[in-house]
Amino acid sequence: GISQEEWDRLQKALDWPSPDHEITELGLSTSPVHTTFSIVRLNDTYKVGDKISVTITARDHNKNLKTYGGDFFQVKLFNLNLKASVYGEVIDHHNGTYTFDLLLPWEGQAQVSARLMYSSELVQSLKKYWETSFPRSHYIGYFEGPGPNGVKISEKVECNLKWGSRGNWSKGNCCCEYKDVKTETVWQCDRPKELSCDYWVYHENGAVEDQLTPFEKQLCSR
């Protein structure tokens, strides 16, 4: 429903560079301690509507300059007394340096804050997971209905969302499927041993699956 030009523009806007090789040493990841930022050509005064540029130079935990981009920084201009703030637009130069343009929308004092949200190495790890469709959260489905001799029975089984066109959790014909008419989301539940799919009552949250490796968890903590 969109033009090829619009599609290409969206793909370019969503593109996120990654390290050109897999990082296996924690010291090679971006360090918020050794990374620095500075305001380019800082003036004594500015006018409302002016812009200032902030340059970030990323370094790893060994104090070495980074040679690739992909870090997730947040840079903002703020004034606590006015309770005002504005975030900057980032340009990733793909060589370990970043430029942020900040608009000056109010009169008075302003401070600049730069924060490393996720290192490029952590982004690379997380990207591996969000591009796959493994079930991160699990759910429990409850079924109630008539059993032998008219006795009411209940069963609970594992359920999950059906992802993509084929579904990552699809298990052949062994599952019950339920489609939300508003969102068109499809749920799958293991077929109960005694009751049919028609006797589904509700489902609730179950376990949350942690897929991060010990090294990736270290990247999160650093």
Instruction: Please state the CA-atom Rg, rounded to the nearest Å.
Output: 25 Å
Number of strands: 12
Specify the number of helices: 3
Our measurement of the CA-to-CA distance between the termini, rounded to an integer number of angstroms, reads 43 Å
Q: What structural category do the secondary elements indicate? A: mainly beta
Overall pLDDT: 85
The order of strands across the largest sheet is: 10-11-9-8-12
Q: What general outline do the C-alpha atoms trace?
A: elongated
SSE pattern, N- to C-terminal: HEEEEEEEHEEEEEH
**What percent of residues adopt helix (DSSP H or I)?**
10-25%
Low-confidence stretches: none
For the report, how would you describe the main beta sheet? 5 strands, antiparallel
Strand content: 35-45%
Short description:
With 222 residues, the chain is mainly beta. The protein has three helices and twelve strands, in the order αβββββββαβββββα.
Question: How would you portray this structure in words?
Answer:
- With 222 residues, this protein is mainly beta.
- The chain has helices at residues 4-14, 120-130, 214-221; strands at residues 36-39, 51-57, 72-79, 84-87, 89-92, 97-103, 111-118, 137-146, 152-161, 175-179, 186-190, 200-208.
- The strands form three sheets. Strands 10-11-9-8-12 form a five-stranded antiparallel beta sheet, with no helix packed on it.
- A hairpin with a 4-residue loop joins strand 5 (89-92) and strand 6.
- It is elongated.
- The two termini are 43 Å apart.
- The mean pLDDT is 85.
- It holds the Pfam family Neurexophilin.
- It comes from Triplophysa rosa (Cave loach).
- This is NXPE family member 3-like.
